[in-house]
Design goal:
Mean pLDDT: 79
Order of helices and strands: HH
Number of helices: 2
Shape: flat
Distance between the termini: 30 Å
Strand content: under 5%
Low-confidence stretches: 58-63
């Protein structure tokens, strides 16, 4: 969502939200963090291609 907000030129504002953290809620597993990191990287690459008006790589369906 942030990549789309930046792409379309909208302003980003901060909205505070009170929250409490506890030990069980703040644990992230290696697999989840790795998958999240790859998703951020993929989104960033697609955003860069779009920003520079470069035709995105086609994703072909193997069926």
């Amino acid at each position: 969502m942030l990549a789309q907000i930046i792409h379309f030129g909208f302003d980003i504002e901060e909205v505070t939200c009170p929250i409490r953290y506890f030990k069980e809620a703040s644990t992230i597993f290696l697999y989840r963090s790795f998958r999240y990191g790859l998703g951020v990287l993929w989104t960033s690459i697609r955003f860069w291609f779009s920003k520079h008006h470069i035709k995105q790589l086609a994703v072909y369906n193997s069926s």
